[in-house]
Amino acid sequence: MYLTEVFQSPHLQMVLFDVLLLVYYFVVWLGLVVVVHWVCQACPQKGNPLPRKPLLSAHRGCSFLAPENTVHAYRKSLELPQVVILETDIQISRDGHLFLLHDSTLLRTTDMVAKCPSVDPFTNATELYFYSSTCPLSSLNVGQWFAKNMVDDDLMVASNQSVPLLMDFLRLAVNSGSIILFDFKELPDNHPHALNLVNATLKAIGEAGMLHEHVWWLPELGRDYVLKNYPRMIQATKTEYTPFEEFAEKRIRVVNDAWTLPLNTWRKYQNSNMNLSLNMYWVDTKMMLEYAWCIGIDSITTDNCQELSKHNENQLFLVCQHLHYVLDQAFLPAVLCVVIICVIFIAYLSKYEMKLKANGEYLQQHADE
């Protein structure tokens, strides 16, 4: 009875409407806070500066501009600012020559089907000879498949690329002072050089005059040997290769992982006392660059060197800073409005409680009479 009479008051209903309106506004504001936190959680909080832009690692060379894993691709990448790391994949031929190729077969990036019709196109590339055979790796073209889509002055150069030797890659890195990041491709069990891949690679690095500090050793294969005999080489790893608890034992200094790695894992690496350098790969868009930039990633591996090297403004950071400012400005008015309306609402409740109490006493007196 009491509540019914209270809420039947026109004045109180108006106040209640205002309260509900402010509560709705406050709930919407809280929803925006959650959304902004989720979208902007990678970016520095208000008042904190934007970290340095990540350096660029050329994934198989500048492979959006030139055929991947070719001398031309690496030369093109070295023409761009901020490219300081060259990434590649190392394989070894049946006659013991180290060469660059990502795929296990030659089907996608070479003209082997046309040039060597008698060879199974799904043959593992490491089963072929580099020089002495009817279908040597050195004779294959690795640029024509890419050059079909080119219309610029690089067309002729790109369409005449051959499978490069590791030494060609190392000389480019030495002459430019670049860092190299590489991985090995798995060899067949019966490969004649399966046990020589690590030593052959280390020998080539030495013969090229490569500074050990410019070598990021990513493969698990040979890691213990390199740790013992080449202590100045930089040990790099992926989360799937090495648990964080083993980083100190293996002297890991570079974490090379995908952008899909959870943000809290990146933060764990940053907040450790190990002075880790973080490299994020598969970063090919401006938005992904801005995400890595906001986190504070040291370098990114990208196929899109030409675009990302020119992208020097972080829109994600600017938008998040603005959103945080807007939410901060809206917070205090929202809280004050809710408090004021609640005070008025409570005052009305008190007023009607006193009125009803007085009416009750009056009715009781008449009943006694």
Task: Provide a concise account of the structure shown.
With 369 residues, the chain is of the alpha/beta class. The protein has helices at 2-7, 10-40, 71-78, 112-115, 144-147, 155-158, 166-176, 197-208, 223-229, 263-271, 286-295, 305-308, 315-368; strands spanning 55-59, 83-92, 98-100, 179-184, 215-217, 234-237, 252-258, 277-281, 299-302.
Percentage of residues in helical conformation: 40-55%
Rg, Å, rounded = 33 Å
Order of helices and strands: HHEHEEHHHHEHEHEEHEHEHH
Judged by helices, strands and strand pairing, the structural class is alpha/beta
Q: What kind of sheet is the major sheet?
A: 8 strands, parallel, barrel
Total number of strands: 9
Provide a descriptive summary of the structure in words:
With 369 residues, this protein is of the alpha/beta class. The model has no long low-confidence stretch (mean pLDDT 87). It is built from 13 helices and nine strands. Helix 2 runs antiparallel to helix 13, helix 3 packs parallel to helix 7 and helix 7 packs parallel to helix 8. 44% of the residues lie in helices and 13% in strands. It has an eight-stranded parallel barrel with strand order 1-2-4-5-6-7-8-9, surrounded by four helices.
